[in-house]
Write a structure and sequence with these properties.
Blueprint (H helix, E strand, L loop, with lengths): L9 H18 L5 E3 L4 E4 L3 E12 L4 E4 L14 H13 L8 E3 L5 H11 L4 E7 L2 E7 L11 H15 L5 H11 L5 E3 L2 E6 L2 E8 L5 E6 L8
Antiparallel strand pairs: 1-2, 2-3, 3-4, 3-7, 4-5, 6-7, 8-9, 9-10, 10-11
Helix pairs in contact: 1-3, 1-4, 1-5
InterPro entries: DUF6882 (IPR049249)
Length: 227
């Protein structure tokens, strides 16, 4: 599914895709359990993480409901910090998707919101908790979350092409530069190219057309064990 992202923090949202791939690698197909009121998401005996509640998707109504607007569920206030932070961000920047209590899913969906939330709140990742008739989306924010050990260039070369293929990102060059800044990788711009060098040699070269869309990505990746 292609997601239409609001024109918001597009230079950092790809790092959220990076986080989601790491989460998928960690969990594979392990069963999950969510203690909604305590705010813990667990996977058997391997992981137990603090989470914030973002909101729910309803298949019956075809809509998204923000956690801060779900007064009927009486969600504890300490689990609404992230969703309220997104609401405040939307008010500050005039983004109705972040301030409207309920939205149709053809306008925005949980995966899109999860990516934005992960970026804005600097979370570890987001997780979709499905149930009959819909799904609850939570934001993982826990210091015990495993750190990614992949070299930044490997992550970038793997994630960036997949992200721009699945997300409606109008300026690929800006998104790549934001991704490089996320990893604190130095780069230089040379006409239609963005180049990253190590020891004076190019290790990543991205080429763009006149509309700043990626046309070619070349990277020199050294083998590295996973986790």
């Amino acid at each position: 599914m292609r997601a239409n992202l609001p024109n918001l923090r597009l230079c950092t949202v790809i790092a959220s895709c990076d986080k989601q791939m790491q989460l998928a690698d960690l969990l594979e197909s392990e069963p999950w359990h969510l203690n909604v009121y305590a705010g813990f998401l667990s996977f058997d005996n391997r992981y137990r993480w603090h989470v914030q509640l973002l909101g729910t998707e309803s298949l019956a109504s075809g809509s998204w409901l923000w956690a801060w607007a779900n007064t009927e569920s009486k969600i504890p206030g300490h689990l609404l910090v992230a969703s309220l932070a997104l609401k405040a961000y939307g008010e500050q920047h005039g983004i109705p998707e972040l301030t409207t209590p309920q939205l149709p899913l053809d306008q925005i969906n949980g995966n899109t919101i999860g990516l934005l939330a992960s970026s804005i709140c600097e979370a570890n990742a987001f997780y979709r908790c499905p149930y009959e008739g819909g799904a609850l989306y939570v934001l993982i924010m826990d210091e015990s979350f495993p750190k990614c050990t992949e070299p930044p260039l490997h992550q970038l070369a793997t994630v960036f092409p997949q992200a721009i293929a699945s997300l409606e990102i109008p300026d690929h060059r800006l998104a790549l530069i934001g991704y490089l800044d996320h990893y604190e990788l130095g780069y230089e711009q040379d006409g239609e190219k963005v180049v990253v060098r190590e020891n004076g040699e190019p290790v990543l070269t991205a080429t763009f057309d006149e509309q700043n869309r990626l046309t070619n990505l070349e990277a020199t990746i050294k083998p590295h064990p996973r986790y």
